[in-house]
Amino acid sequence: MGKDIFKSQEARNRQEEWFQLFLAKVDLNVNFKMVPTAFGESHVLLAGNPDKPPLVCLHAMLTSSAHLLSEIRYLAEHYQLILPDIPGFSVKGIPERLSFKDNSHSQWLAGVIDSFEPETVHLFGVSIGGYIAREFSLAFPERVGKLILLVPAGIFQAPVIKGLMTLTIPMIKYKFNPSEENLKNLVDYFLTTWDDDWAHFLGDSINDFITPKKIPSVASDEELQNLTMPVLTIAADNDLSFPGEPLIERATEHIPNVETELLPDTRHSPPTTEEFRRWLSRRVDTFLKG
């Protein structure tokens, strides 16, 4: 199990330990549920008040529901948080990577949401989770109230070769000599603020997961124009993969009902600080209640 996304059973076990560590950071009553989908049973974390509006939250590539919940836990006061683990991109996810060339991710997410029987949900997606949230919103617009995209994939993509050239040497150095210095030189391209757990998790994650061979395509102008629900797009100005300024410019030009935030001095992973967590919670809550 999992040989298609992990390099070894040891790697899977290590990622399972990281999942539990990040889950332990969450000072909330958290439950999990296995829900049926067309692609197999999916693991979902649940937190917050079930009487509040449902907010489906999709994590970034090679992280998990627990990682995301540890950063957005303040939203649990105002919403029922539903956090599924994305197939192929989480130790708790279905151990299969779905195609980016069809609507597989949207069909998977539809199955997850069906299990909770809401008429509509709000969606919040980070990075690859933002891509999936946007794709679902295009496929099932009647099921989405509002859409929040944080450093999303699939709106503007920096040249892949540039990113590879930047990261190849730091990745090779860390692979063959996993010292603290080499780790810092590698994760500095991703982390805005240093965090021991996030840094060492990323170092392990890069080595533990088999590198995805496919990346999401960039949305066409027409696809962005078809996002008819209110959208909040938050981008990072120093994001190596999805540079904030051109991403915001494209979202503003083509998404009909969009609010935007450009995070200054921020890399792909926004600050892992209490100040930012509280700001993000307030910004999302203000948008959803506006």
UniProtKB/TrEMBL annotation:
Domain of life: Bacteria
A GO term for molecular function: monoacylglycerol lipase activity
AB hydrolase-1 domain ranges (all copies): 53-269
Hydrolase as UniProt keyword: yes
GO cellular component, one term: membrane
GO terms of biological process kind: acylglycerol catabolic process
Membrane-crossing residue ranges in chain numbering: none
Matching Pfam families: Abhydrolase_1 (PF00561)
The entry's keywords: Hydrolase
Name used for this protein in its record: Alpha/beta hydrolase
